[in-house]
Amino acid sequence: MIEPIRLAHGLGAEEARRRVEQLAERHGVRVTPHADGLSGGLETSAPLLGTVRARYAIAEDSLELEVVQAPGLLPPGALRRRLVEELARALA
Asked: Tens digits of per-residue pLDDT, 62-77?
């Protein structure tokens, strides 16, 4: 599977949450937050490839993302790089 992703940010938890939700909306990713609003699940389907599911947790100074399901046709390294690039841009 894909190594968990941890990205530092200086936005505070609420602003990071808002930006992650905006990014998810732009890409058609379903966000299922837990009661705290700062952690939960993400899910999207890639046509012809399958479903990607992940868990996330947002702290005051970092975001952690763990992919728990990914299509076998997607190279793990490529998926991880894409996630890191998109999240880093959103949290910049």
From this structure: 999 999 999 888 889 9
